Please model this.
Amino acid sequence: MRRDGCGELRREAAGRKVVLAGWVHRVRNLGGVTFVDLRDASGIVQLVLRNGAHLAHEDVVRVTGTVCPREAPNPSLPTGEIEIEVAEIEVLSRAKPLPLPVADEGSPSEETRLRYRYLDLRKPRLQRNLRLRHRAALAIRNYLDKQGFVEVETPLLTRSTPEGARDFLVPSRLARGSFYALPQSPQLFKQILVTSGVERYFQIVRCFRDEDLRADRQPEFTQLDLEMAFLEDPEELFPLLEGLVAHVFREAIGIEIDLPLPRLPYAEALARYGSDKPDLRFGMEIVDVIDLFPKQSVLAVLQDKIGVARALPVPGGAAKSRSQLAKLAEAAEGQGLDLLAWVKLSEGISSSLGKHVSAEILTAIAARAGAEQGDLVLVAVGEGGVVETALGDLRLRLARDLGLIPRDRWSLVWVVDFPLFKEGEGHLDSEHHPFTSPRSEDLPLLERDPLKVRAKCYDLVVNGVELASGSIRIHRRELQERIFRILGIGGEEAEQRFGFFLRALDYGAPPHGGIAFGLDRWVMMMAGEPSIREVIAFPKTTTGACPLTDAPAPVDEGQLRELGLRLEP
Ligand code: ASP
Model:
């Protein structure tokens, strides 16, 4: 007889004989009757056993029985209107007492969850996450296929690709003393692919970055990587990407995204939200208030230091006590702000600026910030840049604190016009990576005022999280070499590290550009999970360990000898 899915049976099946197989999710013994929740990949159904089988959680059984309407339906289960009157039961496999619960979340440690991942993954929540991930990947492939993209695999044993992290190295046995690097991204291969005539490339690809312990990073993670030929401006790529993003949200979780997405220049994102990945699900925009202070009073407050003064409205924040606000100010000033003052609108207007600043100025600050009775306005004074980021951090922290972030809203925005370079140690570094094209009108500034050069670079920011990052690339060798020089990569080094790539630009490289999405993060957000570990089947701990397999593990002497390696004592 055909096996039915536990979760698929409905009232209409009443009277049918069925064969079911699955795991014992829950067991309740009530006198002579045993109720079992049986679980398989399709869901859960209640079994009624009248001959007292001894069953433990997670035993694997096969039963034959009849579908019966349930006397007391359970509305929380899709199969809640029926149960299975069991005629025969066969135990296919016994389970020992469980090191972690499957039917309930419990509070097992991360280590235990990952060591017994096969149990952890049986939880319906994690099964849903894996399926959501599959649906997202499928939606990506279907959409891109229709748009003429070709999925091409690029090597995992390769050379270093600079994305700003450390490489994982793999020693070569055949070329002793030489090492492969695992790709931090397929950046150079995808650029070479478009010059090879694959005009539209994509890949759902594993990438590797050996970074120090940072919350919610994985040493190996998955990107949706894509690249397109004949693009010279980000705007030529956005409609396609927006279509992709909307399609995936729709197919994976049934959410409609409003298109086109807004564009926000980097400088404006910093000024208005104090972040290059602003969460736009809520307002609390930062405003400039320096002009509201008469010069003398700024001098008085800051004891001769005039910098930038910006204000952050905090809706409902007037309820914060003086001591809470004093703590905020102390913390902010510890992070390099000269001053964090507050203005409160409750029963009139009061402020920590006290007598230094007149009531008119306080009122003007509150009005500029759009604050109303019951609100708070924080005023930060200090060096440009420091003020914005400090207020950006406060904006997020206070919005979370005060419950001002709507949970059911999605805010997607393109952040554009990033600077091409940032200050590095003794030289300039790329803000994105060295293959990003400068904006054509900024080319004359390259050597003269490089920090002012804007890049043809873009991030897709979703609810304050950087979901994707990409750029229009450099497709001319001279310009690429010029950028390398500015980055302190001399001719010889450029030839040694990137010669293969520079040569590919010599033989007719089309203008091109692309992007990479963090697939783990994307699925995490759509699943409403707090960590990417909840949407990766076999993730590693924050120390890069896999408790299931005990990787990384020592290797034996013989293996090392073959590789020509010796460990330092
Ligand atoms: N390779 C870049 C990254 O991994 C993405 C891109 O520029 O397409 O961040």
